[in-house]
Amino acid sequence: LDQFGRPRPARVLALPAAFHDEAGLCRYGGNAPAADVPGVCAKPCEQTAWENSGSCSQACGTGQQTQIRSTARPAFGAGAACGPLVRTVDCNTQPCGQAVDRDCQGTWSACTGACETAGQRAFTQTQAQQGNGAACPTATDCGHGDGQCVVDQDCQGTWSVCTTACETAGQRTFTQTQATQGNGAACPTATD
């Protein structure tokens, strides 16, 4: 209120905007450092995510791993400062001698036209079974359709029945129900 009890008009003060001076410092109002005016021109440090550098010092029993990161943008003005660029963290914390479960892995030799039996096939192991992991699979005989294996199958079918006309071999027909495969027997020839 003024001296006569009337409300005073509000005063609006124009404050100069923050700016960067020749040295790159953030200033407020031309001469006050930004640190004197909280929040003005303040930018926190920005850093990249942590990444492993090298390998863990031990395979088990808690080793040490160095991690690094870089500064993407340094802190500016009253912004939060950057943290360290290198740190050491624990790794491979499982106790030594404790069984790790791993399944056996590998491949069986291919089935060829010889249609190998289980005893003739070889298993090439790429990872051994450990702990409670699955054991290596047992071999099986190569069967028809496995790889290049074709099992020997004889031709099967029936000849037309001889009637009272006593057909010659050339007049009879053969109905094939299974073709010859591999070294199986050929279809029989007709007889009179």
Which stretches are low in confidence, meaning pLDDT under 50 for 5 or more residues running?
13-17
Strand content: 15-25%
Helix vs. strand class: mainly beta
User: Which radius of gyration do the C-alpha atoms yield?
Assistant: 44 Å
Order of helices and strands: EEEEEEEEEEEE
Tell me, rounded to a whole number, the average pLDDT.
Answer: 79
Main sheet strand line-up? 1-2-3
Number of helices: 0
> What is the β-strand count?
12
Task: Please give the share of residues in helix.
Answer: under 10%
- Inertia-based shape: elongated
Distance between the termini: 136 Å
Let me know the largest β-sheet. Answer: 3 strands, antiparallel
Overview in brief:
This protein has 192 residues and is an all-beta fold.
Summarize the topology:
Blueprint: E1 18-20, E2 26-28, E3 32-33, E4 46-47, E5 51-53, E6 63-68, E7 71-73, E8 86-91, E9 105-108, E10 123-127, E11 156-159, E12 174-178
Antiparallel strand pairs: 1-2, 2-3, 4-7, 5-6, 6-8, 9-10, 11-12
